[in-house]
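Structure request: (Mediterranean fruit fly) hypothetical protein, Ceratitis capitata.
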Amino acid sequence: MTAHRPCVQAIYNDGLTNDGTFVLLDNGLIANTMFVTAYSIAVSCRRTLNDWAIRSEEQSLMIERVLVLIRNVLQVPANPEAECRADNDASLHDQVIWALHQSGLMDLVLFVVSSSDEHQFHLHGLEILCLLYREQTAESLADASLQRSLAEKQRDEQELLAARRRERQRHQTKPPVARHSRFGGTYVIRNMKSVSDRDIICHQPLERVMSIDFDREKNQQKRSFRHIKEEVQLTRRSAFSVRLCLREFCIEILRSAYNTLVREVRRVLERNAGTGSHDDSYLLWAIRFFMEFNRLSGMQLELVSESLSVQCFHWVLTRMQHDMDMIVSDKKQARVWAKRLHVALQTFRELLLSLLALQKVKDDRALALFDMLLNNVCYVLEYRETILHLLMNYNEAHSTK
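Returned structure:
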């Protein structure tokens, strides 16, 4: 392990080159360890994935271990303070994604999640997809193109103007006066009445008069420290090539794998609903992300037909109700269930937004689906009272705002 540490450090410091390899400038040695390792794994997996019917148990175990390895590598938390990477720069997570793309492992993951015969690996593939897009937003990927969008140009111009304004203010700041005023006179504060109807008279220095406060001697209310802190969602603009790669990969998932993946994973989760061995947050997050990407990219109904159904609405609603019940019953893990409830609520919100976008599609089949969902979802009492029930049972000690 000691011999490979310089390679890892070079990957971290030097970054990604144009040909997808990682360069180590140590005595002229070129190290593309991650690329070569991922490529060798991809070659061995291609041979194993050829025919699932004649696959041995050892080969299936090897595929599962490879998927778990990819999941564990992508699950390493980001450290922006240590990386010191700006937007539009390749972070360590972006470099891993690019290495997976160049080696062909992302295509193998796409094949696994798109095939109904590989249902035993769908949960691993779903986790990999969620970790691939964890730092991305569907809006930024939908707007990614070969040329910069107008919003990106305006945002960059505003950031540049703000930086110039701060620099100008720093240079124009007057030096502090060497002599301070020690005059402690008597002042009359206008439009502030005293005990009588006259203006209040203040016998204090000018600094205290300007910051006069009548609440200093009041008994302050005790603040509760049990309120959960707002978690900062790490979102950043990745390198331009990485964003284009993730956008194309997202389109391929919607075209060939999304409906199959949602159907098979939801079937597994419903089968193991009572055991509690699986977390449904990954599927809820994937439904929300890919449906938002599809809605912002033109709203093609056939790509997300598995999600725009009464069964999916009902499943998301049952997940929300289950999480609300577990917050009350399992108080030790209340914050964990609150996080799952937050993910389910975001998915339910995206389902409603996609339902509204479905109304604008000029297609008879889309309008018929909209009318059917409107009658079976929006006019049902339990769906309409869901948001009201969430507001009435909101507890700031468990859930964020």
